[in-house]
Description:
Blueprint: H1 2-21, E1 25-28, E2 34-39, E3 45-51, E4 58-64, E5 68-77, E6 87-95, E7 99-108, E8 117-127
Parallel strand pairs: 1-3, 2-8
Antiparallel strand pairs: 3-6, 4-7, 5-6, 7-8
Amino acid sequence: MFNKKIISIFLGSLILIISCAAHPVVTQSSGSDKESLTVKKGQNFSIRLDSQLSTGFSWKAVEISPMIKLKNEKIKTEESDKTGGIDIQEFIFTPLKTGKATLVFKYGEHWKKDPKFIKTFAVTIDIK
């Protein structure tokens, strides 16, 4: 009886941890310049965008709805030994309120005084 109780608690905890760890992701590598995503209030979600950071170009979140908070940004380098190799920029957000929200990203040389943007990517978020 005691062992069944421990196993039940362990399995319940494991299910809770797994369900909290996973979060919705939008990945854009080419093609569409618009996407949509449905998320739950308070549940983190990610936007992953292919870039080439070694060329001086990167994605920047230029419009973030006040209903959403940028929590973190991560970079994963796919081809670290090649100049111009593909990097993945991951933007992690937390939705704060229910409703519709929009995120807009621009790809360009953000470090320049007057940057030119060569790509725009927009995501419409439906927060439940």
